[in-house]
Amino acid sequence: xxxxxxxxxxxxxxxxxxxxxxxxxxxxxxxxxxxxxxxxxxxxxxxxxxxxxxxxxxxxxxxxxxxxxxxxxxxxxxxxxxxxxxxxxxxxxxxxxxxxxxxxxxxxxxxxxxxxxxxxxxxxxxxxxxxxxxxxxxxxxxxxxxxxxxxxxxxxxxxxxxxxxxxxxxxxxxxxxxxxxxxxxxxxxxxxxxxxxxxxxxxxxxxxxxxxxxxxxxxxxxxxxxxxxxxxxxxxxxxxxxxxxxxxxxxxxxxxxxxxxx
Amino acid sequence: xxxxxxxxxxxxxxxxxxxxxxxxxxxxxxxxxxxxxxxxxxxxxxxxxxxxxxxxxxxxxxxxxxxxxxxxxxxxxxxxxxxxxxxxxxxxxxxxxxxxxxxxxxxxxxxxxxxxxxxxxxxxxxxxxxxxxxxxxxxxxxxxxxxxxxxxxxxxxxxxxxxxxxxxxxxxxxxxxxxxxxxxxxxxxxxxxxxxxxxxxxxxxxxxxxxxxxxxxxxxxxxxxxxxxxxxxxxxxxxxxxxx
Lengths: 262, 244
Hints:
The complex is a heterodimer.
Chain A: H1 5-16, E1 32-36, E2 44-50, E3 53-64, E4 75-81, H2 97-112, E5 122-124, E6 128-140, H3 145-158, E7 161-166, E8 171-180, E9 189-196, E10 199-202, H4 206-211, E11 214-220, E12 226-232, H5 239-259
Parallel strand pairs in A: 4-6
Antiparallel strand pairs in A: 1-2, 2-3, 3-6, 5-6, 7-8, 9-10, 9-11, 11-12
Helix pairs in contact in A: 2-3
Chain B: E1 14-15, E2 18-19, E3 31-35, E4 43-49, E5 52-63, E6 76-83, H1 98-111, E7 123-133, H2 138-152, E8 161-169, E9 172-175, H3 179-184, E10 187-194, E11 200-209, H4 211-243
Parallel strand pairs in B: 6-7
Antiparallel strand pairs in B: 1-2, 3-4, 4-5, 5-7, 8-9, 8-10, 10-11
């Protein structure tokens, strides 16, 4: 999808006047709705709408071989699929660079906050551990994919059930659950700030994202610590702007946690 | 940040203000930068940061292929970061990985603001960043070398981009983590800065820090990058000294 230069200039002009096209304040999210457990075969699933942006996350849990440098730890895998159903910009085929970046930023927020207690996911040390697959699937791209995907991943994981493991047959029984996925109470929430005309905007529409110079995602935990950050796209930022983005993300992250009971 | 079990020799990463390789907390590993090291490339550079060693080569500006990537308004910068198979303890599989694709993208984003891309529409500038030896901080060193290679190729630039990381080891904020510090420390934050306006062009972070610790880390990387800018300039001047 491409945009007329005139449209881009108009959006920027309005932002310079302190206005967004849909009337929201610069730091105002669109409505967020959450659906939980929508896929019966998955160990967890969540669908998050932010405005018209629509993201579904499915979690599958299975067994696998641990990495040699962490023989007693379970494994987290996080991937994202920008399905061609979500936008004329997305093409089918192997993951493109934007989906790789998105999933790696969300992965770091989950991994580095130690949300998933991987040390409790060992079945036989050095041989068999649980693997948690977090798959992000974009259904409609109307801007702010990263925050939507990060929320959906967190909500899904918080409701994930462990499948049953039969130690005699060494088989996983997916249809029977055996307690919750072991988590710690950190609730990492990514909040992305988009820089347009030197101003920070939250939760951009597709059009606002298209005119932004760059963006910074800050993932914070419940205690207000920072667990992952990523500046993206080719604009630049000052130290002061980075610190401002951190302040805003801590604040907005806390609001989202409260609102969505995370 | 990888977690895992710490071997005994890395039980303590900081003893009396000194790190495992004898450095102070705000001290960078020894840096060597050379410009114009490859014959076939239009511009090139070599960097060593401790035992991290990287070659950067620039080809272009040249005709853009495939044509669909062409930009009517500005030149296209194509960056490709690769870890050579023998650069790491465990052999790295050749070919692009998810990690290398992400680093190629953020390195491109880090270098783009330094180039007058709009002065040369419809062409491509290719930058290849080959990690010959990896001991943490490879993306930062690759960006630092990449910027020197671009300048060496005579690409019109606003300034030089350098990058280094600050991190947290055993609760201490430290500049330029080496391999074991990266593996067993608590956080790592690579930051690239543009010399002409002091702005941040790359920032990544993983681990756990408070806001104040991030602020302290930013101060450290700024000092680190100021030092790197002088080393980059020295390397570019050095090339012409040799001609004299």
